[in-house]
Description:
382 residues, mainly beta, Jelly Rolls, 2 domains, ten-stranded mixed beta sheet, nine-stranded antiparallel beta sheet, 10% helix, 41% strand, elongated
Amino acid sequence: MKLLTIFFLSIYSIFPQINVQETQITDGVVHKRIVNQSDTLVINILKVDIKRPDLTIRAVKANELLGTKETTSQMFERYRLSGFNVIAAINADFFEADGEVVSNMISNGEIVKAVKFSDSPFNEFTNSQFAVDSDDNLFVDQIVYSGNIILPNGISEEIHRINSKPDSNSIILYNRFQGKITPDLPKEWFVVDFVLFPLYSAGDTLIYLTNGKTTFRNFEVPKEGLILSANNKYGYYLNREIQVGDTVKIVNEFSPKIKNLKSLIGGWPVLVKDGQNMIRRNPSLEGITEKFSENRHPRSGIGFSEDKKTFYMITVDGRQQSSRGMTLLEFANLMITEGIYYGLNLDGGGSTTMVINGKVVNNPSDATGERLVGNSLLIIRE
């Protein structure tokens, strides 16, 4: 399809040093680029009619593994080569040095990581997150994992994490996103791992057959199925209560309860709620620091309109002569100006990247170019 370029006439055109260009990328997707020479800002905005049945949002983990990194462009290209009609991408959650994302993540209905508390050192509770259900309804909230395993004796026990390294005295689930083997744990811990083979589902409840059991470390994670791992007091307890051949039930829920979650990614913090600038109302929202909030940096963010029909991706270049970046207060104001009613800040700085039709349209600030990141959000035409 030949691209239709529309030069947008608005209040910006009154000022000759502000250039605004809108380009229709495909049906339902428009790219808006703002170059403000007087205020030294370069802004890229992608607007998506997400209620179109042929457009969807997909959270993608780098290399489909918890502890690895890829560039946003590499994730875009990997999915394109797999046969997906990928339109655009933006970097997403904050991440650890190895690529593990800080918050909860779901990709195409599969849990990549689930925790009750954020792994962020700045916020003791869960960071704000962005969610999409199977009907492409959009949500921004502080979403908390709440999982349980129902043992053969009918007793329900709390699942503390899915993937990621556990705390002592805990019950963990590992799936294919963890990698080939379960993670290293302290040698003095007692650990028991069970291989769970999926049988069937009944609503939110998944039923598994226990077809393996071991106290050896670094046990192999099956491509289909789960590893149920318990350590110390829970290890001794489950080692007694679960035998090979038993069936167990797993209930994975999130609070607030959103049915049929398709994609879930973290950010930090929420910037716009009910059309209001949340940074103006609370400058230390979700434990953000003054340095992070009030200094001008490259920024990445997402949001949606009040009617939840339009989804936005936004990048602001920074740390360069052509674009100085924004404070979080300024970034929230930009979102509101562009029509965002609920907006979430994503990992910025050198991670800030927007890709459209396979091309990076912003200017990443790292001297080496596009940064390796933990995950991304893709816009896909189905």
